[in-house]
Design goal:
GO molecular function: endonuclease activity
Keywords: Endonuclease, Hydrolase, Nuclease
Oligomer: single chain
Protein name: HNH endonuclease
Domain HNH nuclease: 72-121
Shape: elongated
Radius of gyration: 20 Å
Organism: Planotetraspora phitsanulokensis
Distance between the termini: 26 Å
Largest sheet: 4 strands, mixed
Strand content: 15-25%
Strand order of the largest sheet: 2-1-6-3
């Protein structure tokens, strides 16, 4: 599905959203197109023609509440670990608790990793020391103002780059 980068009125990146939702915001005049699709694609209706957007900007400023800790979600965890198993490096499909919950392990960023099914089943509710396994990368809390855009610099349109740099924040 085609994604569009949504900027606040101050050009601060907020999130990515589906093309359909972006077009609705533009048609309702709640947002304006900052960059068009690089391929020159156009949407047509009986009465209007609209360039497919790649980046849109809200016309009004939206205040984003400050969060001291980023919420742990499956999607964010997979993004943090780049959809790779923390044990073997294969494509990850599940979440594993490094210290199993059955042994008192918390459900936190520092204790959760992405895992492939075979590793998750092999590990079961055992500790890494029991298996002689090690983590490829230590799990940490993602940080940064634009955590909602984890991976956007790799998945998105090249036109997004100027808005995703640290200096633009």
């Amino acid at each position: 599905m085609r994604q569009v980068l949504l900027l606040n009125a101050t050009y601060e990146p907020l999130t990515t959203l589906a093309l359909h939702r972006a077009v609705i915001l533009v048609l309702r005049e709640k947002a304006e197109v900052v960059h068009r699709d690089g391929r020159g694609a156009v949407l047509r209706s009986a009465t209007r023609t609209l360039d497919v957007p790649s980046v849109i900007r809200l016309r009004r400023y939206v205040r984003i509440p400050y969060r001291s800790r980023i919420p742990l979600t499956r999607a964010a965890l997979m993004r943090r670990d780049d959809f790779r198993c923390a044990y073997c490096g294969q494509r990850a499909e599940t979440i594993d608790h490094v210290i199993p919950r059955s042994k008192g392990g918390p459900h936190t960023w520092e204790n959760c990793v992405a895992s492939c099914m075979p590793c998750n089943h092999s590990k079961a509710d055992r500790l890494l020391e029991e298996l002689g396994w090690t983590l490829r990368v230590a799990p940490v809390v993602p940080h940064g103002v634009h955590w909602r855009l984890i991976g956007a610099q790799f998945d998105g349109d090249p036109q997004w780059a100027p808005y995703l740099t640290e200096s633009a924040a």
